[in-house]
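Quick check before the chapter quiz. The format below is the same one you will see on the exam, so make sure you can read both the input and the output lines.
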Amino acid sequence: MFSFIDVFLFIFSEGWNSLMHDFTVEPPGCVASDNLYNTDCGSKVWAYILFISWNILSMYIFANMFIVVVTDNFSYCYQIAAEFSLVNRDEIRGYPFL
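Here is the expected output.
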């Protein structure tokens, strides 16, 4: 559950670098082991590649797609509301001159 929240925050570029630095811990600052599941060590190169590529991909593509969908839906709602409105666009533009 918390990983989905983290990924959502990373999409909007919030706090991704602190987690990236947690993944860059190398010996002697971690417990090294031959078994992958018994170690808490990371790799600087792979952490930088993973998080920077995710940041570029998500921030510049997914966030922009989200914004486009929201603005498109607002314009669609405005078009529907404009058809049923008692005041049309020409009357709104001419209001200060009345």
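If your answer matched, good. The radius of gyration is 24 Å.
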